[in-house]
Design goal:
By secondary structure, the protein is of the alpha+beta class. It has one domain: ACT domain (Alpha-Beta Plaits, 2-Layer Sandwich). The protein has 2 helices and 4 strands; from the N terminus they run E-H-E-E-H-E. Strands 2-3-1-4 form a 4-stranded antiparallel beta sheet, with helices on one face. A hairpin with a 5-residue loop joins strand 2 and strand 3. 16% of the residues are buried. The model has no long low-confidence stretch (mean pLDDT 93).
Length: 89
Amino acid sequence: MTEQKETLLEFPCAFPLKIMGLAGDALAQTVLEIVQRHAPGFDGATMEMRASSGGKYVSLTCTINATSKAQLDALYRELSGHPLVKVVL
């Protein structure tokens, strides 16, 4: 019997996370702290930031070196549970 894989990803791999929330100083710093807690090697200088056309929202893209499905699950849970974060893709 073959064991069914939980994910199609092969680890380690570069994995982009897109995080969206209301524009403000606290969002980028908060996201950086959460991402670095789960992916200690993440370089904050590589975070990409893009404001919405109206300027009310901002999207942050963090490409991490993902090492496991458990790491990604924990990261998604913490990010999506934070009140400043509206969407995590």
